[in-house]
Amino acid sequence: MKKFLKIIILSFIIVFILFSIWSLNPLGPMKEAKEILNSNNEGIQIENTSNIVFKPQKYETGLIFYPGGRVDPKSYSIFAEKLAEEDILVIIAKMPFNLAIFNSYKADKIIQDYPEVKNWYISGHSLGGAMAAKYVYENPDKIKNLILYAAYPAENNDLSNSNINVLSIYAENDGLANQEKIKNNKQYLPDSTKYVEIIGGNHAQFGYYGEQEGDNPSQISREEQTKIIIQNTLNFIKK
User: Fold this and answer.
1) Domains (range + CATH), the chain
2) Strand order of the sheet with strand 119-125?
3) 3-state secondary structure (DSSP) of residue 71
4) Of 94, 111, 222, 225, which has the maximum CB count within 10 A?
5) Is 195 helix (H, G, I), strand (E, B) or coil?
């Protein structure tokens, strides 16, 4: 019995070590994203501590962003800076083991830290988007605006009867959150949800972290896809 228990404990330790190595070696960031954090944008204050914060000189709107699974949060810096230039406070949440599933409620602390924000939006890419949807489902009184990037809510986080505003941006050549999955999960979002398809885009180009296993090649540049994402996000926020 003792020998069997030792085997179980040893197996657990090995699995935990392998998982830690895998999750703590995330995808990205690419050079372009790293340069943003080291840039000197006079109109924006950048903080890189418990979260990555892009703070404009004046703002009333805040956007919380949950990164994709096992993606370095710095990989979304270009996206965040462009929104901050439009007077939007952007907080990219750093997650335990780079997986939002381990802290889907992190938005609570962020909201508390910025009481001056009048209008909150929560968003996320891929797994991060699913966890952002989970947060909205569990906290309908705190955030009324959800933006999904190549993401959709789980069946047990059904938002179809909620009164929240939702924007869903997905890509034609996405090999992970493909069009079939987006279509099949529309039933868990409000009928008023606005959908935007990025023609020629793929999953990995929602950030600057390189290629991703299981994805399909993109037919447009990363810069072009980023521009489409930013423009549609701004349209939704400033509508």
Assistant:
1) 29-237 (3.40.50.1820)
2) 44-48, 51-56, 88-93, 61-66, 119-125, 145-149, 165-171, 194-198
3) strand
4) 225
5) strand
